[in-house]
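quick one if you have a minute, typing this from the bus. below you get a single protein, a line of residues and a line of whole numbers that encode the local backbone shape. could you go over both lines and see whether the tokens make sense for that sequence. anything you notice is useful, everything is just below.
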Amino acid sequence: MAATGPGGPRPAPDSPNAVMRELRGDLSAGEFAVTVRRAAREIGEHVSCDARYVGRIESGAIRCPNYAYERVFRHMWPDRSLVDLGFTPRTAVRRRAGEAGPPPAPVPAVPHHRDEENDDVRRRTFLTGGSTALAAALGLDGPAAAADRPGDPQPLPAAPAPAAVPAPRKVGAAEVSGVEQAVRDIRLLDDAHGADALFELAGQSLRSAYVLLNDGEYSAATERRLQACAGELAISVGWLAHDSNRLADARSFYSEALATARMAGDSALEAHVFCNIAFLARDAGRPREALRAAQAGQAAANGLGSDRLLALLALREAGGWALLQDRSGCDRALARAYGLFDRGVCAADPEWMSFFGEAELAGLEAQCWSALGEWDRASERAGRAIALQDPHFVRNRVLYTAELAHDRLGRGDLAGAGGHGSAAVALLGDVRSARIRGMLAGTARQLRGHRAVPEVAGFLDAYDGALAAA
């Protein structure tokens, strides 16, 4: 029964979750957290489950998980509801949180423990709210911010008057974790939907992250984390600009990320920036810049212990050689990439490389052979990339299929080009990527004079219909 006090009933103390403890069995809390993260990846979710989070669940500190964790737990135990798993119904949690009356008796603070539900709210604010809403969520709102309507995307002023600058506020682990999770969420949404719909929202998140970095007060350790995640966020926004065909914007964001990496002395962030700069330079038709960036990235990554990161950078180098029509240079870089890739994954691999598996390896190789005009090899590798791609990486599946249509056209296979072009259009759905649409537009343009081929006519009709409906 709930305790009573001068102001009425107080919530009962948290009760241990015996069901989840039983389901963990003989696994340690850390091993169980690995199982949860693996289950999340199976359904395209990303959760930052660790031993501490498992302990908070079992102690009852987390009475109801956020929606991402709920989906993962329902995936792991499909025959059980949240209540069956020992949690409090979400409606009861919300009702208790919204009840009128005096606050409950104070509970001793537990250092560094995150509130998972509030973290979920912070993540959504980063992705969908304006800078003012974000400042309010992170405790950085001041008198000037209060005049704006929460949720309205509004750019931060370039040179605010002194009165509009909020007083420095303490920035700690919770605020930095919000930025880190925003980066993860942007990547997941990009994997599913492409960049076009995300670019502006992600740009708001980036400006807000730099508010924390430039106007907050924090420890040296927090500063290092905040610099790293602000740089990663700048890279993510740069990639969204790239995938939206805003190449000049992408170059600017990558320059900002590189400056942040250099100021922080962060080799891992620097390697990531150079990896993306090399990709952008290749797509912009600057092969020598792509080569230089890929090689600079390898120099930055050499001491990080990640063979997979070096493999990806070697593939970026191979793409530069291919654009220069240097077959031997491309062969050497590809051989190095495969040798490094075959060493497998390790703990030093960066989190952002979750997309880099056998499918991406084959897809990037296909682009090299395509640039060299070796259409049979390009088609074979693009087909392999499609076959190997995880279903939840929807954007990449469309990309590889569009690449295969292009490669079949290069080979002179009009029916194959039309068939794979139709498959790419069918996969587009909610994917919004100007870069992929540009690839399909190029294929359609070259096929316009070949409507007599039934597969070509089918593709052109589907493509024109999708274009009209966009």
Summary: Confidence is low (pLDDT under 50) at residues 1-13, 95-167, 192-196. The chain has 21 helices and two strands. The beta strands are 4-5, 8-9. The two ends are 57 Å apart (CA to CA).
